[in-house]
Design goal:
The complex is a heterotrimer of chains A (304), B (309) and C (325). Chain A has 304 residues and is mostly helical. In chain A, 71% of the residues lie in helices and 0% in strands. Chain A is built from eleven helices and no strands. The longest helix of chain A is centred in the middle third of the chain and has 37 residues. Helix content of chain B is 80%, strand content 0%. With 309 residues, chain B is mostly helical. Chain C is of the alpha/beta class and 325 residues long. Chain C is 32% helix and 25% strand. Chain C is built from eleven helices and twelve strands. In chain C, the strands form two sheets. An eight-stranded mixed sheet of chain C has the order 6-7-8-3-9-10-12-11, sandwiched between helices. A four-stranded antiparallel sheet of chain C has the order 2-1-4-5, covered by helices on one side. The longest helix of chain C is centred in the middle third of the chain and has 18 residues. The radius of gyration of chain C is 21 Å and the shape is globular. Classes of the chains: A mainly alpha (304), B mainly alpha (309), C alpha/beta (325). Chains B and C meet through helix 9, helix 10 and helix 14 of B and helix 2, helix 4 and helix 6 of C.
């Protein structure tokens, strides 16, 4: 009697219900730019790993003889068949230097923001979850950090601690820690008062469990987007600091560092200015396209 | 509100710079000075005092406008910064003006013509522009417009009205382009978001012309997030000015910071960063005020918070 | 009594990247002067699309009026240009939307928003328009001194009153009310509906009341049209629809309402879902879910609405009650 109206729905009229991950993946594929971005990033990673492996296998032979060796005969040589990007003021082949410079931008750029996320997210989650005094204190601290323009903050930290890779990572993360914590806190606060949290408490989950199993997954996705979009800025920050001599030190061929002396020679050697910068732009664009794609794929509101 | 945060920021920067290497006495007197002279100077400078005392001294001096003495040339840091602050402000303001005048219309047009070819082109262009490093853009602009075309000077700030403006163009473009692209994207997203709100349908249903709908109903609402972004990213602009000023040898505070770091002139670095942080905070306060003007919901919040005391 | 609105064979489709959505198929609808017509249907049936089509508020690149005519007061407004249709919007035909929380512009005062509607269609001074807007506020039960307040300072029910005031400010001949009380809680709903009844008597505005709540229909409407999958499947006066139900879908809807009197252990929904609007179906749109379904139903479109009584039409091969059978 109750199933009086039931008929076979058949003809698979309903689209098969896809899991959120499948939906996100197909949306992502539709976004061609994001795929191009991903391809470029894979290539960059390949180059970086390639250079690391070569250095390891040849015991820095290539590095010493092709990347940092000086050959003043070729000083400022313009692009040619044997040196496709030309040579810098010390006669070093620019193409090789740029290839070997990939790993700095990539790993320091990503590393700094990863570090910031790992520290910032828990801080924000704790602040959002416990609220009250804890929240106030933590957020005031974050506000203080963000009151200083992040480039200047990074510069100050490096001025104080010195120019090593570790210090560079620390200097670059501090401001981002504050940003991630804000985002995490905001998402936690939207979820915290939902009833399923109360339900979890009712079945006896303790604070730590609630934070990890329920709150974290909700806080994660806005942070993920911030992460990918932040990589681009991170890479630019490394380059900027290295350009000023505060980041990766010469003779390491970090792309920004290569550009430090470019201005002095710009009248005669435009190639030193142009090529490293191009690689920076391409890398950052790739990460931004990926970030945009991820964000569009994950945001249900943007589905037409 | 903002004051404790600012005080905290001075504390933060002070603490960081406290760890800067280098003995101030040696830097000033040179390493050939006698042990006694160095020690006497150290006591005079107060660098042997406990941390808190040093911070306290710094803070009270700050309140009086005294930022200490530069290690490099023994001049008061305050006057060194004051000479340069205007230049940074001119550059920053022109950068913002450029970014707003170019960015907002571009973003709005992109949103109104969503899905068209123009929209796609604009989106792609802004994607690229935000990826360009400031210092590289400066280099390219100089190579093209200074070295090759000779239209603009490659460095320095011109004296006299017309020279000044001519020399301002390239730095302004360098600083403003990335900002403009960011503003364009935000404007586009904001207008798109407002466009699909119910009250836009209501406005059309009242029979208002499309122009009135766009300018009266959409824009005032769309401006709110745009203003936020402008304010939040002013700090990035200040960071960018460090690089821009360095490349163009523009005599501003940004370039001063870089020089001071190179010369290990800690008071100068400390003073400059604190001043720029204050500037940043002031701009954010200004943004909050503009916010309250644009959005009556925020105005209500402020008013009720004010009444509570 | 003449028809103030006559919709003939209206068909509307949305052309999107993912396919074409046939939102309205061959809609025939008549509205008499001063009459209140209830338009009932499930979510996605096409009610809002129909209302927006009348006002030409559909986003025109994806949406398109494929076929049909909309005749208002004897004039064919389907192909009117922008300027002409704007003279009608808010002035002769008004629309109010479902969610009062977002229907008002948050940065303008309520008085200002009503005044704007008045000034758009009347050549009077700003002061006159302002006092008229204050009058409208009073008519809907909001004191004049709240005219300079912003929407966020009002509750949901009061916001909806403002929206109604705005819609009626120019004394339109037709009011399209798209689920005006769905977003409000029940007690406020009752108040707003009572107010609307009072206004209807005062202004004699013809109304199309879109809702999925048959209870509201019973209270407020003289005539009812049932819409399913973009088609009008039954239309008639409120008595016939409730007592002499002709279409199986309508019957299903009525049976799905739990009775306050009878002992009800389980609710009786209509199983299944509306058909995929991107596929043009061969036979009757309701055939998949209909218990009386026959071969003829699956393969042939039911004839365009046939009469089963005075002013009672249905679109079905096997109507449940009929003066024909």
């Amino acid at each position: 009697m109750i199933n009086m109206f039931s008929r076979k729905i058949g003809k698979e009229r309903l689209n098969r219900v896809r899991s959120p991950l499948e939906q996100a993946a197909s949306q992502f594929k539709k976004n061609k730019m994001a795929v191009i971005g991903l391809v470029i990033i894979i290539v960059l990673f390949a180059v970086a790993f390639f250079t690391i492996i070569i250095d390891f296998v040849t015991n820095d032979y290539i590095y010493n003889n092709y990347v940092i060796n000086q050959n003043l005969v070729l000083r400022l040589a313009p692009p040619s068949a044997s040196h496709i990007f030309g040579c810098d003021e010390f006669g070093r082949d620019l193409f090789m230097r740029i290839l070997w410079g990939t790993k700095y931008s990539l790993f320091i750029g990503i590393g700094a923001i990863l570090l910031a996320m790992f520290i910032g997210m828990p801080i924000g989650m704790v602040a959002g979850y416990y609220g009250g005094r804890t929240d106030n204190v933590i957020m005031r601290l974050m506000d203080v950090i963000l009151a200083v323009p992040s480039m200047l903050l990074a510069m100050a930290i490096i001025a104080a601690l010195g120019t090593s890779t570790v210090n560079l990572l620390i200097a670059m993360s501090v401001a981002n820690i504050a940003r991630f914590s804000r985002i995490a806190r905001a998402s936690v606060m939207t979820v915290k008062d939902n009833e399923f949290i109360e339900a979890a408490r009712a079945i006896g989950a303790n604070d730590m469990e609630i934070l990890v199993k329920y709150i974290f997954p909700n806080a994660f996705s806005p942070n993920l987007v911030q992460f990918t979009l932040g990589i681009g800025n991170s890479i630019l920050l490394v380059a900027g600091l290295s350009y000023l001599g505060l980041g990766v030190q010469p003779p390491s061929p970090e792309w920004g560092a290569i550009l430090t002396t470019a201005k002095t020679y710009m009248r005669d050697a435009w190639h030193i200015s142009v090529f490293p910068g191009m690689f920076l732009v391409i890398s950052v664009v790739a990460f931004n396209m990926l970030g945009d794609g991820l964000r569009d794929a994950m945001d249900p509101k943007l589905k037409k | 509100m903002a004051i404790p945060v600012l005080i905290g920021a001075t504390f933060l920067v002070f603490t960081i710079m406290y760890f800067a290497p280098g003995d101030p006495a040696e830097i000033i007197l040179g390493s050939n000075a006698t042990h006694e002279a160095l020690e006497a100077l150290r006591i005079k400078l107060g660098v042997n005092d406990p941390f808190i005392v040093q911070y306290g001294r710094f803070f009270f001096n700050l309140l009086r406008g005294d930022l200490g003495i530069s290690y490099r040339n023994s001049m008061p840091v305050t006057s060194l910064i004051a000479d340069r602050l205007c230049n940074t402000v001119y550059l920053a303001v022109s950068g913002i003006l450029f970014a707003v005048i170019v960015g907002i219309p571009v973003g709005v047009i992109s949103a109104i013509k969503q899905y068209s070819l123009l929209d796609d082109i604009i989106m792609f262009a802004t994607l690229f522009v935000t990826a360009v490093p400031t210092f590289w853009l400066a280099l390219i602009l100089v190579i093209v417009f200074s070295v090759n075309l000779g239209w603009f000077p490659a460095s320095g700030m011109g004296r006299g009205a017309s020279d000044f403006f001519v020399s301002l163009i390239l730095p302004m473009l360098t600083l403003g382009c990335g900002y403009a692209a960011l503003i364009a994207r935000t404007a586009r997203a904001s207008v798109l978001d407002v466009k699909r709100q119910d009250y836009i349908d209501t406005a059309r249903a009242k029979g208002l012309s499309e122009n009135v709908v766009i300018w009266r109903h959409m824009m005032q609402n769309a401006l709110i997030p745009i203003v936020t972004v402008i304010g939040l990213n002013f700090g990035v602009l200040l960071g960018g000015s460090v690089l821009t000023e360095s490349i163009f040898s523009w005599p501003g505070v940004g370039r001063f910071v870089v020089e001071s770091i190179t010369y290990k002139d800690t008071p100068a670095v400390l003073g400059s960063i604190v001043v720029l942080a204050i500037l940043f905070t002031l701009v954010n306060l200004l943004v909050d005020l503009i916010y309250a003007v644009l959005d009556p919901r925020i105005k209500s919040q402020y008013q009720s918070a004010w009444k509570k005391g | 009594m003449s028809n103030i609105l006559d919709i003939k064979e209206l068909s509307v489709a949305y052309h999107t990247e993912d396919g074409t959505v046939y939102a309205l198929n061959n809609i025939d609808l008549e509205l008499e002067d001063g009459e209140t017509l209830g338009l009932v249907g499930e979510t996605g049936a096409g009610k809002t699309t129909l209302a927006k089509s009348i006002m030409r508020l559909l986003p025109v690149p994806p949406a398109k009026i494929e076929y049909g005519d909309i005749i208002f007061s004897g004039e064919n407004i389907t192909d009117m240009d922008d300027e002409e249709i704007r003279a009608i919007r808010g002035n002769k035909i008004s629309m109010i939307f479902q969610d009062p929380m977002s229907a008002l512009n948050p940065v303008l005062t309520v008085g200002e928003q009503i005044k704007e509607a008045i000034l758009a269609h009347n050549n009077i001074s700003e002061d006159e328009a302002w006092s008229k807007s204050l009058e409208m506020l009073e008519t809907v039960g909001i004191t004049k001194n709240r005219a300079r307040d912003y929407p966020h300072q009002f509750s949901g029910g009061m916001k909806q009153r403002v929206v109604i005031a705005m819609a009626l400010a120019c004394n339109p001949q037709i009011l399209l009310a798209d689920e005006p009380t769905t977003a409000l809680d029940v007690t406020i709903q009752a108040q707003v509906l009572a107010m609307m009844r009072g206004l209807k008597e005062k202004f004699n505005t013809a109304t199309i009341l879109i809702t999925h709540d048959l209870g509201i229909v019973a209270q407020m409407c003289e005539k009812v049209a049932i819409i399913y999958a973009g088609e009008i499947v039954e239309v008639g006066n409120v008595h016939d629809i409730f007592k002499n139900t002709a279409h199986p879908y309508t019957k299903g809807l009525l049976e799905a309402i739990p009775s306050i009197y009878a002992d009800c252990k389980r609710l009786k929904p209509i199983d299944g879902l509306m058909p995929d609007p991107t596929i043009r179906h061969e036979g009757c749109a309701f055939s998949e879910r209909c218990i009386y379904c026959d071969d003829i139903c699956i393969h042939n479109q039911p004839p365009a609405v046939q009469s089963v009584g005075t002013d009672h039409k249905v679109r079905c091969w096997k109507p449940l009650c009929s003066t024909l059978s």
